[in-house]
Amino acid sequence: MRTFDFDLFVIGGGSGGVRAARMAAQRGARVALAECAELGGTCVNVGCIPKKLYSYAAGYAEAFEEAEGYGWHVGETRFDWAQLKANRAREITRLNGVYRSLLEAAGVQLIQGWAQLTDAHGVQVGEKHFTAQHVLVATGGMPFVPDIQGREHGVVSDAMFDLDPFPKRLVVVGGGYIACEFASIFNGLGAQVTQVQRSAHLLNEFDEDLRQFLAKEMTRTGVDIRFNAEISMVTRLESGLCALLSRGQRVEADTILFATGRVPNTAGMGLEAAGVALDERGGVIVDAHYRSSVPSVLAVGDVSTRQQLTPVALAEAMVVVDTLFGKGKRQLDYDYTPTAVFTHPNVGTCGYTEAAARMKFGKVTIFSSEFRALRHTLSESKERTFMKLIVDKASDRVVGLHMVGPDAGEIVQGFAVAMRCGATKADFDSTIGIHPTVAEEFVTMREPMP
Ligand code: FAD
To answer: What residues does ligand 1 touch, defined as CB less than 6 Å away?
Structure first.
């Protein structure tokens, strides 16, 4: 029988790779992990974590304004961008260290460098060559910028956390969740933000009512959203940058962020030469157990999935570990994956949009509510909250739950458990609310929309 250096070689130390390596090693497998940058990957270094920290920072601007209604006179406030950046960097470095300790404690051999597949069982990192019975590709994704003249003057999301100086004027190109989040964050931190979106709405895959409501709220907070507008050229001026829009409009800015999608990170890794089939986006094609066209090579996370979320990468990694080193084959159920968008206000969503539910279930009943949260009676903020339930008429099952409002992500997480368990509208109705909360509205909506 052929012997290998490792049972599992993981390429990429992000969400999926770290989880798979650590859990496999804890189950007794001999594991190596190669990472070419910092441990923790996109989520820890340039994604979820720093983004959420900056979102908290942006939230203070609203909180200071609202405090007066509650009798607090905050006085003069001043935002220190350099301090926020330094504090964020310190926290991210701490997390990098936590990841390293967890992997080392589990017995994973860490290898620093760019890894390339040499064949079905071989991996090259710099001068060193390793063999493994299984190779897991967990190399994530990277920002994609369309071929626009002058795009080199713009930046991608990775650069937003360390901009120097703070951009007083920011153009955000795109309407996906990353675009909306950065637009909201920098608006909250005091930048004048223009968001340029080529279609007529934000957040393509989200519920139509939700995305209309969000656009209204983001506009109310001060983001200048230009719908049906495409950016055709970026030029450098003495006073900064200029984005030329397709209808002849010009927007001047200090920074232009291209949040125009992400592509799988597979270039220069020897995947195709080793026989690993890629799709038209360059993503690794995998079966339901994350095996590629080369049976010893597997892939999880953004490099292969359609749901590019950290918890999805983690869940996929656990399926791989169970399949290779533990409890046996099982399949991940992607239905009712909840997700949040950390705009101001937040978005939380789980299950089907109204349009998708009508296609899938035929007859559906819609419950919807829009109101001013109790908190804003005294704060005098004009912020409004939106909530919507979509119920399959035949089974009474709640198949869609959507929200724009404070802590939407925190609220929807709990409801997602109920929805995965098949909760019906009758179950929602018989659940006693927690009063006074925003979330109680989800269990007190009685009148369907006409
Ligand atoms: P990654 O975490 O990207 O890790 C891949 C790793 O592989 C990287 O560390 C990279 O350096 C390394 N690598 C690549 N090629 C090689 C090579 N050849 N050799 C060695 N190492 C290599 N998701 C959420 O769930 N919630 C959020 O709020 C959220 N916010 C986000 C905000 C932003 C701005 C972005 C960009 C993403 C966000 N995401 C969020 C998505 C989330 O970060 C990803 O889904 C998740 O990180 C994917 O994990 P992964 O393991 O597939 O890849």
So the answer is: 11-17, 34-37, 41-43, 47-48, 51, 114-115, 138-140, 157, 178, 265, 269, 301-303, 308-311, 313
Ligand 1 closest atom vs CA 19: 51
The Cα–Cα gap between 217 and 201 comes to 13
16 Cα nearest atom in ligand 1: 51
Grouping H, G, I as helix, E, B as strand and the rest as coil, residue 430 is helix
- Kindly report, residue by residue over 385-422, the tens digit of the pLDDT: 999 999 999 999 999 999 999 999 999 999 999 999 99
Note the residue count of the chain. 450
Same domain (yes/no): 272, 250: no
Q: Is residue 449 part of a domain?
A: no
Active-site residue (options: 121, 201, 376, 435): 435
Q: Residue 53: what residue type?
A: L
**Cβ pair 25, 31 in contact under 8 A:** yes
37: closest CA among 108, 92, 76? Answer: 92
Distances (CA, A) of 167 to 8, 141, 160, 180, 357: 45, 26, 10, 17, 41
Number of domains in the chain: 3
Boundary residue ending a domain (260, 287, 309): 260
Nearest CA to ligand 1 atom 46: 310
Judgement on whether residues 302 and 360 belong to the same structural domain of the protein: no
The CA distance from 232 to 153, in Å, is: 13
Its pTM stands at 0.97
- Is 435 among the catalytic positions? yes
CATH code of residue 88: 3.50.50.60
Are 209 and 127 part of one and the same domain?
A: no
Peptide bond into 167 cis (omega under 30): no
Over the stretch 123-161, which tens digit does the pLDDT of each residue have?
A: 999 999 999 999 999 999 999 999 999 999 999 999 999
**Within this chain, do residues 156 and 81 fall inside the same structural domain, yes or no?**
no
Q: Is the dihedral of CA 43, 174, 406, 306 positive or negative?
A: negative
For residue 437, report the distance from its CA to the centre of ligand 1, in Å: 34
Which residues are registered as beta bridge partners of 348?
Answer: 340, 403
444 Cβ neighbours under 8 A, 6+ residues apart = 433
Span from the CA of 49 to the centroid of ligand 1 (angstroms): 11
Residue 359 structure tokens: 């296609």
At 134 the three-state DSSP class reads: strand
Range of the domain at 171: 151-260
Q: 385: domain CATH number?
A: 3.30.390.30
Atom of ligand 1 nearest to the CA of 43: 43
